[in-house]
Amino acid sequence: MTAETGDWTPAISPSGGPLYLQIVEAIEAGLRTGSLREGDRLPAQRALAERLGVDFTTVTRAYAEARRRNLIDAVTGRGSFVAPRRDPAAPPLDLSMNIPPAPKGVRLAELVARGVSEISARSNLDLLMSYHPGAGSSAERAGGAAWLRRTLGKVDPDRVLVASGAQSALAAILSVEARAGEAVLCEPLAYPGLLSAANQFDVAVVAAEADGDGMRPDALEAALRANPKARLLYLNPSIANPTAVTMPETRRREIAAVAVRGGLKILEDDPYSPLAADPPPAFATLAPTATFHVATVSKCLTPGLRIAFVVAPDAASRERLAEALRAISLMAPPLMSALVCGWIRDGVAADLLAGVRAEAEARQALARAALPAAVAHPSGLHLWLPLAGGWDRHGLAERARRQGLAVTPSDAFRVGGPAVEAVRVSLGAVPERARLATALETLSSILAGGPKALRDVV
């Protein structure tokens, strides 16, 4: 709970050295003695300047230095607050991990406890704690079909498989649809999990050029001609990771037509479309006999729920995929999948999704104000920040690290072609919205200072 410290007045002296540093040292002393505590709101800068009889710029400089030392956080429109105490060895504020933010007013621990209690009352908990080889029970597959309805329309539960997260599903699909020495085609910047899985199976990953609407149809045709062993096309078409691009319907139809003519299977990785108010049609509806559709709940509800629903293009593909999933992870955790499907059935998942979407939209508004040059979706979990003004991605990441921030350079996503001077900035991992605002403002200030500032301190 925030406390007001409007009467806090540091003791300063004309003979005590630079006045702004005396204010900073007074904040440090207040933290040591307990007269200032985490979350306390400091006096407004102008009010403190009048009280001390110093220039306004002296207090502004003091608060800026206090922020640099991680003593206070500033929130636009609200003021300056004593920051939580940070272990110098602790990791930086994480703008690198793409996870959904916790929605306001939702206590996940209570939801989980209540959900498990309801499962215990309705199900045989002993059975849920045993092995369940296969691709999901009939109830779980029905839950998956219900979850997919908003994206794919009515889905036959017999076409649905339940996997222990999207990564297991991607690996399983690669293992059955792309043999060693063959190739999977994708955009020049792609999800690192795909790249890692392809490397494990000795499958080449080949880039087909993209533009502002995603992969270009002519580039896909060229990639097919150059790579006759390509068997699989990987797409992340809605709020793409990392570029935040959503491929429009016309482009999707063009890409689907090229893929079908070329005999490609499509791997549609779709973690983010539930966050969008009105996403374009999924590839699984445009080319249903050619598409594996993977929809995880980890990226739109909470990362701890390692459950993904997969729709296969036909019965034979489904059986091969079920065998691959058994080989890779044996089963999705039954208690976890029962919890997810219970939430879907009871409406908890829809409410949680709405809360995550609202929080994501609020965080994107903060990001637009701080980083207007970024590419983003209004309800996405991340933004893509192309760099200009002489910045390079590694220099920015290093400068951000020195300021207590972590961002992801483009190298993590690069498939081929020249390096892209850009970073991905993720908005969900910092728990408090106010702390996120401070982190984004810090990143904006770093960019405004220019790359020379980094060279000066190295």
Automatic annotation (TrEMBL):
<protein>
    <submittedName>
        <fullName>PLP-dependent aminotransferase family protein</fullName>
    </submittedName>
</protein>
<dbReference type="InterPro" id="IPR015422">
    <property type="entry name" value="PyrdxlP-dep_Trfase_small"/>
</dbReference>
<keyword id="KW-0663">Pyridoxal phosphate</keyword>
<keyword id="KW-0805">Transcription regulation</keyword>
<dbReference type="InterPro" id="IPR004839">
    <property type="entry name" value="Aminotransferase_I/II_large"/>
</dbReference>
<keyword id="KW-0032">Aminotransferase</keyword>
<dbReference type="GO" id="GO:0008483">
    <property type="term" value="F:transaminase activity"/>
</dbReference>
<keyword id="KW-0804">Transcription</keyword>
<dbReference type="Pfam" id="PF00392">
    <property type="entry name" value="GntR"/>
</dbReference>
<keyword id="KW-0808">Transferase</keyword>
<dbReference type="InterPro" id="IPR036388">
    <property type="entry name" value="WH-like_DNA-bd_sf"/>
</dbReference>
<keyword id="KW-0238">DNA-binding</keyword>
<dbReference type="InterPro" id="IPR015424">
    <property type="entry name" value="PyrdxlP-dep_Trfase"/>
</dbReference>
<comment type="similarity">
    <text>In the C-terminal section; belongs to the class-I pyridoxal-phosphate-dependent aminotransferase family.</text>
</comment>
<dbReference type="InterPro" id="IPR051446">
    <property type="entry name" value="HTH_trans_reg/aminotransferase"/>
</dbReference>
<feature type="domain" description="HTH gntR-type">
    <location>
        <begin position="17"/>
        <end position="85"/>
    </location>
</feature>
<dbReference type="InterPro" id="IPR000524">
    <property type="entry name" value="Tscrpt_reg_HTH_GntR"/>
</dbReference>
<dbReference type="InterPro" id="IPR015421">
    <property type="entry name" value="PyrdxlP-dep_Trfase_major"/>
</dbReference>
<dbReference type="InterPro" id="IPR036390">
    <property type="entry name" value="WH_DNA-bd_sf"/>
</dbReference>
<dbReference type="Pfam" id="PF00155">
    <property type="entry name" value="Aminotran_1_2"/>
</dbReference>
